[in-house]
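Z., the sequence and structure:
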Amino acid sequence: MDIILFERLAIPFPSSFEEKNNLIKCRMKCMLGILFFFFQFNFCSAQPSQIKRTWHWYFGNQAGIDFSSGTAVADTNGALVTSEGCASISDTAGNLQFYSDGRSVWNRNHQVMPNGTGIMGGANGSSSQQALIIPMPLSPNIY
């Protein structure tokens, strides 16, 4: 095997067909190992129960989408009226918990929650990112 120096790095360069073939096989095994790790990590980290947190969307003028049946179904029961910036969250079973436009918060029954008004999100009436709802780590019922 010949050695080629490139910017002070010694890079082995295969000189025969067999050495080239072995180098290709080694690289392919390495790439397959990396791909296996990548896919294994992604599949294990995508928890189905966490996906269910996104099953209910409320936006616009009392508009919503319910994904709990496996397909998008229109939901017009929401109380939210906004032209921008809103958020909603469901529990790990896919049940709606609450939603907000950054100024008010509504519960799963579409009623304003206690202390759910006068919130400062979009205080001047306009904000494209008025609300963000995330569960507290290790406390799935605290947001």
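The beta strands are 2-6, 9-13, 56-59, 63-66, 73-74, 87-90, 96-100, 104-107, 112-117. The mean pLDDT is 76.

Let me know what you think.
H.
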